[in-house]
Amino acid sequence: MSTDVARKVADAVLYEGYVLYPYRASSQKNQVRWQWGVLLPRPHAEASGEAWRCRTECLVEPGQAARLQLTVRFLQVQRKQMEEREGDDFKPVDALEVGTERWSTWDEGVEQESDAEFALADLLDAPCETKIVVPGGQEVEPVEGGRAVRTRWPVSGVVRASAERIEGPYGLVRVRVDVENDTPFDEPGSPRDIALRHSLVAAHLLLAISDGAFVSPLDHPEWAAGAVAACQNTGMWPVLVGEEGSRDVMLSSPIILYDYPQIAPESPGELFDGTEIDEILSLRTMALTDEEKRQARGTDPRAARLIDRVDAMPPEILERLHGTVRYLEGVTGADPSAADPSAADPGALPWWDPGADESVSPETDHVMVGEVQVARGSQVRLKPGLRRTDAQDMFLAGRIARVEAVLSDVDYNTYLAVTLTDDPGADLQQWHGRFLYFHPDEVEPL
Fold first, then answer.
1. In angstroms, rounded to a whole number, what is the distance separating the alpha carbons of residues 446 and 444?
2. What is the reported pLDDT for 343?
3. Which residues contact 159 (CB under 8 A, 6 or more apart)?
4. 103 vs 146: CA distance, rounded Å
5. What secondary structure letter does DSSP report for 168?
6. Who's near 316: CB < 8 A, 6+ residues apart?
7. What CATH fold (topology level) applies to the domain 361-445?
């Protein structure tokens, strides 16, 4: 079950940005492609500054018979060259009218996988490696007025796995997996689109453990913090995947994710853009002209299926995309009626309306930090947590700030709105209501 869920998420990673709205080859945003998890041939990577290898390090709590299964997944670039018939010969063209569609010359992606399995005891004794060998090939598809020639180039790589015990009483093992592109390539100065033909594109790694459990790099126990911090991941971001609470499968992704990512059940199919809202993107796709849809269908078979699916989308499916609020009990495990009178009384004021909730007063509320009561006017020292995503937060560590308000979000999490005491523009920040926000465990009362 965990592996099935993991593969759905991994597929979304594999095709993120594959072809973007308006889904036709002539669109400017589809001229520069293949941005995530690209492992180029080493000579080209060293000349251009891009990556030719990636590294994943994660922690395992092993049993006596622990075994590790690795699956490297990536796309192999396949060139679809349209050729127009000229007598007995063919000439390359950017696009060709094929029936009611306009087929474009385009780089398609072919899914590839490489599997390996090791006993963890063997990895502790000595590093192990396995080869990735993907052959090239060519296929010719006759079409009206010409042909489509699909060409793939050989791609090769190596997967190196090793393990080492972590000193201490907890029996942890650090697993390291390096994936490298070792495809022979003697054109380091060639354009990137040529090098991509010999690359592992959108490369990511699925790791499964039997008789053992992975330790979350994001939500780990305190005793594992030092070992987690010592793990070095290059170009990859490992997270737990599968059913919530399971620890037998991990996805190492070139895209930053949280533990247990899921595909929204409301989403009817791939739109190739995880940063977009399904409803908006579906509506905009419906609004494409017939000519634009014709070109999109001729760009890529996956784009054609997307266009057909959106065109045939029934109203009830589109309505389902209009917005979903996950039931609060499913998020917090709490009974919402205990904190939300409207949950028990439908006629009561909505619980998400702070203006109608007299129990909320950011200017007079307080929160306990340790044994100290912190409220508006309190002086605190800032200690930004490790989970923050803004790199500039490191410059706030140790700074002194004044608490301006104690706030709560709709999930009843508490935050402190603060201004820096040594900021000459603090009065302007107060006037505009533009503050810095910290969890109570990210401050030290003074």
1. 6
2. 46
3. 70, 72, 114, 116, 129, 130, 131, 132, 177, 178, 179, 180
4. 11
5. S
6. none
7. SH3 type barrels. (2.30.30)
Alpha-carbon dihedral sign for residues 336, 340, 345, 350: negative
8 Å CB contact between 241 and 252? no
C-alpha 248/C-alpha 240 separation (Å) is 8
Least Cα distance to 370 among 378, 362, 359, 361 occurs for 378
Rounded distance between C-alpha atoms, residue 251 and residue 72, angstroms: 10
Q: Which two tokens stand for residue 250?
A: 């991990």
Q: Which residue has the tokens 């922690």?
A: 59
pTM for the full predicted model: 0.73
In the numeric block, the tokens 């090239």 are attached to 136
CA 180 to chain centre: 21
Q: What are phi and psi of 339, to 5 degrees?
A: -110, -5
Q: If you ran DSSP here, which 8-state letter would residue 240 be given?
A: E
| Most confidently predicted of 252-256, 259-263, 312-316, 428-432 | 252-256
Interatomic CA distance for residues 434 and 240, integer angstroms: 35
Task: Give the start-to-end residue ranges of the domains of the chain.
Answer: 2-264, 332-358, 361-445
Q: Is 157 helix (H, G, I), strand (E, B) or coil?
A: strand
| Burial zone of 126 (CB within 10 Å; 0-12 exposed, 13-18 middle, 19+ buried) | exposed
- Whole-number Å distance between alpha carbons of 230 and 446: 32
Cα 279 to Cα 262, 264, 305, 313, 314: the distances in Å are: 18, 12, 17, 11, 13
Chain segment 100-140, per-residue pLDDT in tens: 889 999 999 999 999 999 999 999 999 999 999 999 999 99
pLDDT attached to residue 218: 94
